[in-house]
Amino acid sequence: MYIIVVGGGEVGYHLSKILLNEGHEVLILEQDAARCERLTEELGGIVHRGDGCEAATLDSVGTGRADMMVAVTDGDEDNLVACQVAKHRFNVPRTLARITNPGNETIFSMLGIDATVSSTNLILAHIEQELPSHHLIPLLKLKSGTLEIVEVKIPTGSGVVGKRIGDFRMPKGSAVLLVVGKEKGPFIPTDDTVLEAEDDVVAITSAEHEEAMREMLVGRQ
Amino acid sequence: MKVIIMGCSRVGAQLAGMLDAGGHSVTILDVEPYSFRKLPSTFNGVAMVGNGLEDELLKKAGIEDADVFVSTTQGDNRNVMACQIAKHIYHVPKVVSRIYDPIREEMYRNLGLDTVSPTKVVAELLKDRVEG
After folding, report:
1. Maximum distance among all alpha carbons in chain B?
2. Is residue A127 part of a domain?
3. What is the CATH number of the domain that holds A139?
4. Closest-approach residue (CA) in chain A for B90
5. What is the ipTM of this complex?
6. Which one of B54, B80, B85 has the shortest CB-CB distance to A81?
7. Same structural domain for residues A104 and A157?
């Protein structure tokens, strides 16, 4: 694949190095002259000095035949525009933007960016996993719509402890997919499975019913 | 009309003063409070410090019932992103963006934004003067 990486900072550098090793054709666009020189020393002649948001620059590096654009500068708005120019002017089939403000996830997807990666959200998810909290930990957002796979530890005293899953008042479109028992280990639950305190539960739910699902699984009786 | 202007640049400040004098309700935003010195002393509108790309500030500025949103920061990309947020998320009826780069301006105009490229406008004015 021909992949254009906009932004030759630390993220752009390490990403490009890995992509090159995997055999992809990679081109880095970077504005800073000194940074370009360093990148060229490390990675060879795959660095082009220029503004990745400028159509003329993108044209000169053959963006029209690119399979993917990955914008990883530290400015959310620059990443948005680079991806939009690639998409609307050069018909690049897939665009991916790095975002630092997690609030921008929605607007980016509304504006046609195929995928976003928010380091803030990733770090947050890890922190939540480490903390003994009773939040639903988001594991995976399904691309097709609003469905989400989440994880939660059932606290002692939760209303569902000792109950059959079949008897739960499960919110619409939600289901328990996997139970990781403290002693039993992981297993696929049936309607007859009875949850115990401290079980880890992996469930699917929708954004709309997330709060109801949380309340059901961790709320007191 | 209720107007929000993002970016208290020379143009932003001038526009804010003109609209305010014309009887409109104007709120102007800038990340740098020092920029507000450019506002005319007669300005009666609201000047708010903060990043116009952030939801919270936009709501505080009253974007939900604004009639017009204009972005006049120094950065084309910031202007473009702010205007798209105003148009597509808050459905502000009239959204105008300054975009210096004529190529980017043309693209976003084709994508439905109302845009002004000072580069193009000024170059054309100068050309008329030179030839006229």
Report:
1. 50
2. no
3. 3.30.70.1450
4. A107
5. 0.84
6. B80
7. no
Question: Contact A77/B89, CB-based, under 8 Å?
Answer: no
pLDDT tens digits, one per residue of A66-104: 999 999 999 999 999 999 999 999 999 999 999 999 889
Q: Are residues A115 and A144 in the same domain?
A: no
In the block, residue with structure tokens 């990666």:
A117
Q: Give the structural domain span for B92.
A: 2-131
B4-38: per-residue pLDDT in tens? Answer: 999 999 999 999 999 999 999 999 999 999 999 99
Q: How many CA atoms does the CB half-sphere of A30 hold within 13 Å?
A: 22
pTM over 0.80: no
Domain extent for A91: 2-122
Count of structural domains, chain B: 1
Do the chains contact at A78 and B77, CB–CB below 8 Å? Answer: yes
Q: Which of A205, A174, A204, A201 has its CA nearest to residue A189?
A: A201
CA-to-CA separations, A49 to A3, A32, A34, A61, A67, in angstroms, rounded = 16, 7, 10, 10, 20
> Which helix H or strand E contains A161, and what residues bound it?
none
Choose, out of A80, A81, A111, the residue to mutate when testing the contact with B (most B CBs < 10 Å): A81
CATH code: domain of residue B79: 3.40.50.720
Asked if B10 and B76 count as a contact pair (C-beta separation under 8 A), the reply is: no
Instruction: Looking at the structure, tell me whether residues A212 and A118 fall in a common domain.
Output: no
The shortest C-alpha distance from A41 to chain B (Å) reads 30
Q: Are residues A111 and A191 in the same domain?
A: no
Q: Is residue A85 located within the same domain as residue A194? A: no
Distance between CA atoms of A47 and A37, rounded to whole angstroms?
8
